[in-house]
Design brief:
195 residues, alpha/beta, eight-stranded mixed β-sheet, 8 strands, 35% helix, 23% strand, binds 5-O-phosphono-beta-D-ribofuranosylamine
Length: 195
């Protein structure tokens, strides 16, 4: 199975996914695509021999459909079976999501349905939560919604800052996303709750 990964920045989740798709894993990466032409993740993907492409969203300012039509060109050329959003920071229109419905995953740094949207770690700290974590879900038209495919939890510690909590969650993201992708490729849709 062919997996395309969409990124906007460093792509640490993308790297974890690339490193997992080896040996007898049923999937291989076919494209890493970024809306940021100078995303560091593109260099790392290219160094691993994965095809890369960039479509800068800025020239399409405000015209999401036109930007997504431009995204479709490298995507259709790569012909993925599955799309993984990994630190991809552009909101996708319902039209794009519908086209890829059931074949597009996202990782979000909270225990959904809590804290959809941005600044999730700051919000969890402000709420005094004792637990936080990350979720992999199927992408639907609603932001950070869609059927949950997996979650991983971390404790929130007294001395935590947004930075320390982010780092602890990111470690779990790098475990969760590859595990969920492998199950998804194998047709297993049962949610995975990592210990
Ligand atoms: C991570 O918090 C991820 O959950 C969110 O984007 C952040 C950066 O991810 N989707 P990455 O390091 O670019 O993979």
């Amino acid at each position: 199975r062919r997996v395309a990964i969409l990124i906007s920045g460093g792509g640490s989740n993308m790297l974890a996914l690339l490193d997992s798709m080896r040996g007898d894993h049923p999937a291989r990466p076919c494209l890493v695509l970024s809306n940021e032409p100078d995303a560091a993740g593109l260099v790392h993907a290219s160094q691993r021999g994965v095809p890369i492409a960039a479509v800068d969203h800025r020239p399409f300012a405000g015209d999401r459909a036109a930007f997504e039509a431009a995204l479709m060109r490298p995507l259709e050329a790569a012909n993925p079976d599955i799309i993984c959003l990994a630190g991809f920071m552009r909101v996708l229109t319902p039209g794009f999501v519908t086209h890829w419905q059931g074949r597009m995953l996202n990782i979000h740094p909270s225990l959904l349905p809590k804290y959809r949207g941005l600044h999730t770690h700051t919000r969890a700290l402000a709420a005094g939560d004792s637990e936080h974590g990350c979720t992999v879900h199927q992408v639907t038209g609603a932001l950070d919604d869609g059927p949950i495919l997996g979650q991983a939890r971390v404790p929130v510690l007294e001395q935590d800052t947004a930075q320390t909590l982010t780092a602890r969650v990111l470690e779990q993201e790098h475990r969760l996303y590859p595990a969920v992708l492998k199950r998804f490729v194998q047709g297993n849709r049962a949610p995975l709750y990592l210990k």
